[in-house]
Amino acid sequence: MTATAPRVTPQTATAIAVHQLRKQYGPLAALKGIDFTVQPGEIFGLIGPDGAGKTTTFQILAGVMEATAGEVTVLGKAPRHARLDLGYVTQKFSLYPDLSIEENMRYAAGLRRVSATAFGERARTLLQRVSLDQFRDRLAGQLSGGMKQKLALCCALVAQPQILLLDEPTTGVDPVSRREFWDLLAAVAADGVTVVAATPYLDEAERCHRIALIYAGEIQQIGTLGELRDSLGLRRMEVRATPLAQAEAALRRFHAEGSLPGGEGTGADLPAPQAERGGMRDPAIVDVQTFGDRLDVMVTEAAAGERAIRAALADPALTLTDVRLDEPTLENVFVNRLRQRGLDPAYVDFPAYRSGKEKGGTAIHTRQLQKTFGDFQAVKGVDITVRYGEIYGLLGANGAGKTTTIKMLCGLLPASGGDIQLAGATDNLNRSEVRSRIGYMSQKFTLYDDLTIRQNLEFYCGVYGVPPQLRREKIDWVLETCGLVGRENLITGSLPGGWKQRVSFGASVMHEPDILFLDEPTSGVDPLARRQFWRLIRDFARRGTAILVTTHYLEEAENCNAMAFMVAGAIVAQGSPSDIKTSQPGQLIELRSRQIQAASDLLKARLEPWRVSIFGDRLHLVLDHPDEELATVRHWLDSAQIDQPSTRPIPFSLEDAFIGIVQRAEAS
Amino acid sequence: MNRILAQCGKELNQFRRDRLTVALAFVLPLAVLLIYGYAIRLEAKNIPLSIQDFDNSPLSRTYVERLFATNQFVPAPLLGTVPTAPLDRGIAKATVIIPPDFQRQVTAHKPVTVQALVDGTDVNNARVIQNGLRAATQFFLRSSGLLPPQAQSPIEAQVRLWFNPGRQESLYIVPGIFGVILWVFPSMLAAIALVREKEQGTIVQVYASDLSAMAWLLGKELAYLVVGLGEALVVLTVATILFGLRFRGDPTVFIVGLVIYLGAAVAFGLFIGARTGNQTGAVQGTAIAGFLTALLLSGFIYRIENIPFPLSFLSNVIPARYFIEITRDAFVRGTGWPGVWYAPLAIGAIGAFFFRLATRILHRMQFTD
């Protein structure tokens, strides 16, 4: 399963070669000697959390920063001398908000010595291709995230670069735009342009030919999606059982007895799966994780795994409804790799002093909640209900109205219309009795950067009225969970994002609130920390805390019991993750072909374009009636002489479900 | 050259779209012009003066009338009998005490002492009051024919004021304000424009192309020179209307000097912008450096010759100092090129130096660690 590099330019065998690249910022080593090569025409993905060294790598490749040591050649030259053959899209897009679409492109073209005559022609074609040509005179500052991202791509492509460097161009952009963007990239790559892209979305990473996992300035693993999955040597089983918490406990007990004596499944001391497979015992179950309404169980092998799962759940109190085999996700690969390196932080239970609210009661309820800023309607009639003990996810792109909704619920912002019921109170949510029962962790961590960690935590203990005799214990808990014991006197401003996030979470739950609001708590945090974070959140929910969380990562929504998806201030879908996926009509088909781009072009012309998207060397098709339509599709491809060795149905991801919902809503 | 013009065009487009910057460019300079133009008065007028007249004779009353006949003093009440009370309470800056035998002694041609108590808090104005009282007394003696004719001095100095015969103070102040305004605001705008590219990350796009620091900065230099000329036009027009400023003699030296001065101001702004990383720093850097030097070390208000060493040396490299010489020449003195030929050269040299510093800082067109 090697990636098919479409075209090889004759003069260079490799488009980018990086050897032992290092970058040092003062005492901080951002890159600790990384190696990789990128072939011409390839889509190469760089995946990792914030602070892993992705942006530094891009800046060095783009020739805008010097490496400390190591060799980098881009198109056979030093990056600085290859600059005119590169297109570089940064995370902030590098657009001038006060200039129009056309002016931005003209300026970018001028910087790269594109002649005025060539510019007119290319600008028209490019803007038509991304359907921005009717907005040529609109200022870049007034564009939506998805449009900005397309414009940034056009600005990079106008000089017809041989290599495109994309540093997280899709972060915070809505799923439909993201998918369109990647379809564009696939087409660009098929034209022979080499693409190197960083993304925090693992589903996007699956659309690359090859993927490099980068963490803490080192590349952990490189390969195609298939290679990475194979290297894991594990299978993933989706298990649905009730009650879920007991099922998870049973499975954990089972694998604890099998492979982890005395451990509570922390994962930190998990032996590597290879070692396990050669062992004498039969520890088929390697890892258990709760995802909203299901359990993900990593097993060494499908049949043995299923047997083990069924044996573990053979308790009359438990009902096993479904066991399904699926491919491991990139997240599984990443997490496993980091665990092998011993990077998993220890998990410590939260010392709780009072039990939470009775589960099941209504914690948050809104009816026709609205917010208008001037003549802009940010939130348009939102109805949600969150119960105690439930994790409720509010999803949507940047600007969809998630943060505004949360702020209204916390009483930080008055609503323009509608009713809110919060912890039994219906008006004057700003009162201190109500406030003492809610916890709020904001997108931007509300810690004082120039205080030490301990001072920050003490401050929040004081603010939330934690009794003095309990403060020490609570602070110790936060420090331990964050792996910051012995470092409590560090200045908070010097911590990396993931740690700050954990300290910040600790600070917001120290007073044991009944209702917890988490606004984008996990953006930019590495997968291990993210996992641990969700585990913490689940613990709180089990004790009866109602949790409302916003995120633009759809994968994360799998952790929620219920969720709502917002587009432009309105909820377009609501329900449990499984409900949303199963209510999706039709079937998702994965089709393999060697002429993937041609197949995509053909099918996009015949079907609605959103139903077709390229994932690396595979094509995903959404068919409403697969039985009849699949034959037609095969016939179309045959008559165009496009080979199609295999098709198979695959389950919808939440992402697929939402794109379907949004597109169908637009069509009707 | 084309690339420089493209830079300049983009910069001007951005400028005109950003209302806040446009306001900063045109409203603030006018505000400064009005505040400084109307608020700064160096000549002391309408000084409150109390009189304690123990004589209360016709002659003493004539003397008092004489004191107030110059429009320098206005009467202030004495309040009680203590002559220092009005000074203590701050209602008068001076008290004049006329002795009981004033008329008798004067008519008897005997010397008489009139006591004047002057508030010395404000050193400069104390001297002005002192001289004013002396001059008024002298004039009183002459006009009442009390001064013996032989005391007439054999040498009579016949004074005539050159350049500004009406001693119009605005003619002194307003050309100086030009030096402040046309330095501070163009440099601030240029610094903000450069720093904004850093803050918004658009500079990366420029770094990732092969545009040289020189071409990039020249584009900005040109754009903000144009903006600066626009500001100059507005400020000059308003000043002409409000303060009655007119060109004296040859305006070419002013026009040449203005362009060079604005260029130097923009270059200074680019230098500050290249050095700082955020807009706050850029604004503070240009405003503090600009206002302090252009106000205090340029001869705008305080004579350059009074500045002590080593600050006096610093004033030699302040472009505002030379520009104010040019403006005072253009609007007051009117001597033209022979008078201030060196000033445009000096400003040009300093401006070139700042521009060179800015290109030095950015010459790699890369991120620095």
Overview in brief:
Chain A is an alpha/beta fold and 668 residues long. In chain A, 35% of the residues lie in helices and 25% in strands. Helix content of chain B is 64%, strand content 5%.
Give an overview in words:
The complex is a heterodimer of chains A (668) and B (369). In chain A, 49% of the residues are buried. Helices cover 35% and strands 25% of the residues of chain A. Chain A has 4 domains: 213 residues, P-loop containing nucleotide triphosphate hydrolases (Rossmann fold), CATH 3.40.50.300; 93 residues, Alpha-Beta Plaits; 215 residues, Rossmann fold (3-Layer(aba) Sandwich), CATH 3.40.50; 67 residues, Alpha-Beta Plaits, CATH 3.30.70. Chain A has 22 helices and 27 strands. By secondary structure, chain A is of the alpha/beta class. Chain B folds into 2 domains: 235 residues, no CATH class; 105 residues, abc type-2 transporter like fold, CATH 3.40.1710. Chain B is 64% helix and 5% strand. In chain B, strands 2-1-3-4 form a 4-stranded mixed sheet, covered by helices on one side. In chain B, helix 10 packs across helix 11. The longest helix of chain B is centred in the middle third of the chain and has 31 residues. At the A-B interface, helix 2 of A face helix 1 and helix 8 of B.
Q: Which tags fit this structure?
A:
heterodimer, A: 668 residues, alpha/beta, Rossmann fold, 6-stranded mixed β-sheet, 22 helices, B: 369 residues, mainly alpha, 15 helices
Question: Helices, strands, pairings?
Answer:
The complex is a heterodimer of chains A (668) and B (369).
Chain A lengths: L15 E10 L2 E11 L4 E5 L6 H8 L7 E6 L11 E4 L11 H11 L4 H14 L15 H13 L5 E5 L7 H16 L3 E5 L3 H4 L4 E6 L2 E6 L1 H8 L2 E8 L1 H16 L13 H5 L7 E7 L2 E6 L2 H11 L6 E8 L3 H11 L21 E12 L2 E7 L2 E3 L3 E5 L6 H8 L7 E6 L9 H4 L2 E4 L11 H12 L3 H14 L15 H13 L5 E5 L7 H16 L3 E6 L2 H4 L4 E6 L2 E6 L1 H6 L4 E6 L3 H11 L5 E4 L2 E6 L2 H14 L6 E5 L3 H14 L1
Parallel strand pairs in A: 3-7, 3-8, 5-6, 6-7, 17-21, 17-22, 19-20, 20-21
Antiparallel strand pairs in A: 1-2, 1-4, 8-9, 10-12, 10-13, 11-12, 14-15, 14-16, 14-18, 22-23, 24-26, 24-27, 25-26
Chain B lengths: L1 H16 L1 H21 L7 E7 L4 H12 L3 E3 L9 H5 L4 E5 L3 H6 L7 E4 L4 H21 L26 H31 L2 H5 L5 H31 L8 H24 L3 H18 L14 H5 L3 H15 L3 H4 L1 H21 L7
Parallel strand pairs in B: 1-2, 1-3
Antiparallel strand pairs in B: 3-4
Helix pairs in contact in B: 1-9, 2-7, 2-9, 3-6, 7-9, 7-10, 7-11, 7-13, 9-10, 10-11, 10-13, 10-15, 13-15
